[in-house]
Amino acid sequence: MSEKKVIVITGAGSGFGRLAALELARAGHKVYASMRDLAGHSKDKAADIRSIAAGENLDLEPLELDVRSEASCRSAADYVHAATGRIDVVINNAAMMMAGITESFRPEQFAQIFDLNAISWVRVNRAFLPYMRCQEKGLLLYVGSGITQIPDPFTGPYAASKAAGDVLAQIMGLENSRYNIETVICMPGAYTSGTDHFKHAVSGADPTVAAQYDRLEGIAEELAAKLDSTNVPGARTDAKEVAERIREVVDMPHGTRPYRFEVDPQQRQAMIVADKANEMRRTFFERLAVADLLTVPGEVNAR
Fold it and tell me: Alpha-carbon distance 266 to 269, whole Å?
């Protein structure tokens, strides 16, 4: 393992967040597994984290952090910094899933998912970035999705919100690179087991609208099964694979981490799209005379 890092993970009560928190803590890092309402909504999840930490002697601690509240984000950042004196890695992972005919979702549902899947990343960053800039070193890692490059049907609110988060991550990364803060975007494929994404997916609030799409009847409900059927033979389909890859990237030397990486049992090849966009971006940024924003200062960053 590389040096022990102080790591904060949002949405760590279940799914990718919980798996990554355990993986990183077991690798020897100090991990804050954040979730909202530790005494209420997340009481059992926090107890589970504490039990595992005690049983395995892990430096792993539940952290009160509601990504929908800027005050909560700032309070959590202040707490971690006061306790440890530094914040090395922040993993923006909190998310929710909506699936169905896009027109059947009401505007307020779009606002809800954009708030959690994109705007929450800004709230978290606004709380933790000032500490990282003072340190002049840090890593922002985002659990995005390959869907931002190759969107699936029947995922309109989800895909759009993840794409918005992806763009915000890119731009905030550019704006903080001169402060030696790295940005890494993880793009998982569809893991229909090991996470609660599909199990707890929210449907459109206007089913009468969905009923008008008679030519698509039943297809949206089969999305998870259809995605499972596209898993490449021999590919891992357990979500722990994503956590393991996150741990590998976190443990890489600062300045050598990939800008993006894909972990996808369907192998939709989203990195081909992303790599071409990065190539075009570098060319354009050279014309803008800001190409240095693509790397952290004085260190090699393979982008």
Answer: 9
Q: Which residue do the tokens 């002697």 mark?
A: 57
Q: Which of 198, 93, 95, 199 is nearest to 154 (CA)?
A: 198
For the question of whether the overall pTM of this predicted structure is more than 0.90, the answer is yes
Q: What is the mean pLDDT of the segment spanning 79-84?
A: 98
How many distinct helices (H) and strands (E) make up the chain? 10, 7
Burial of 218: CB neighbours in 10 Å, binned 0-12, 13-18, 19+? exposed
233/236 Cα distance (integer angstroms): 9
What residue has token string 């763009």? 167
Q: How is the chain split into domains, by residue range? A: 6-294
| Cα gap 271→32, rounded to integer Å | 30
Distance CA 259, CA 34 (A): 24
CA nearest 246: which of 301, 185, 299? 185
Say whether 14 sits in a helix, a strand or coil: coil
Structure tokens at 286: 């050279």
Q: Which two tokens stand for residue 239?
A: 């979500």
Are 131 and 87 contacting, i.e. CB atoms less than 8 angstroms apart? Answer: yes
Type and span of the H or E element at 184: strand 181-188
The class (CATH top level) of 6-294 is alpha beta
State the CB neighbour count (10 A cutoff) for residue 238.
13
The region that residue 126 occupies, defined by phi over 0 for left and psi between -120 and 50 for alpha, beta otherwise, is alpha
pLDDT at 300 over 50: no
- Record the tokens describing residue 12, joined without a space: 């760590």
State pLDDT tens for residues 189-241: 888 765 655 667 899 999 999 999 999 988 888 877 877 788 888 888 889 99
